[in-house]
């Protein structure tokens, strides 16, 4: 049993005006909302600040590992690399906020915030999330303690697990959580970097 070092990853939040603007962008960009039978999911990453290339490579690997027991394949692409006229069947937009790298970490003013959240409107879960990179990076740093692991790789693993959690919310259209694994309501820094953190059978059942 691992201690929960970090606060609840509460993913559901009511939509605000600026978020509605993002939703309108999605509609105008021709990005469809998720049908119930989605199999191949494109994750468009909107990277706000600097990011570690190595962390993103590891994130893709870990996402593939987490979703391996499911019928869902996850293709992660940077939004700036996606051609403007490209259309997708099933897509979610994920904003990586803050700096997604382990070097030059700034101290966090408040470590109680969520690692990520997914937007909702009128109780419906929308296909976009925001991920707090700085917060995750600080949690990875603390979980490593004084050990000299491959930090960017562990950050990528942690990002993948936070993202996987939000993907279950978005694709599974569910607001409740599981009791264990990657879709539990709260994840610690140590769980984010542990050798293994998987979907539970009930999570797999939530997915197409
Ligand atoms: Zn959640």
Compose a concise summary of this entry:
The protein has 208 residues and is an alpha/beta fold. The protein is built from 6 helices and 6 strands; from the N terminus they run βαβαββββαααα.
Topology of helices and strands:
Elements: E1 12-14, H1 17-28, E2 40-47, H2 53-66, E3 73-78, E4 91-97, E5 116-121, E6 124-132, H3 133-144, H4 151-172, H5 189-193, H6 201-206
Parallel strand pairs: 1-5, 2-3, 2-4, 4-6
Antiparallel strand pairs: 5-6
What report would you give on this structure?
The chain is an alpha/beta fold and about 210 residues long. It has a single domain (about 5-195), classed as Collagenase (Catalytic Domain), CATH 3.40.390. Helix content is about 35%, strand content about 20%. It has a six-stranded mixed beta sheet, with helices on both faces. α3 (about 135-145) packs across α4. The two termini are about 30 Å apart. The model is unreliable at about 1-15 (pLDDT under 50). Bound molecules: zinc ion (ZN). Zinc ion binds near residues 9 and 165. Zinc ion (ZN) binds near residues 9, 11, 169 and 177.
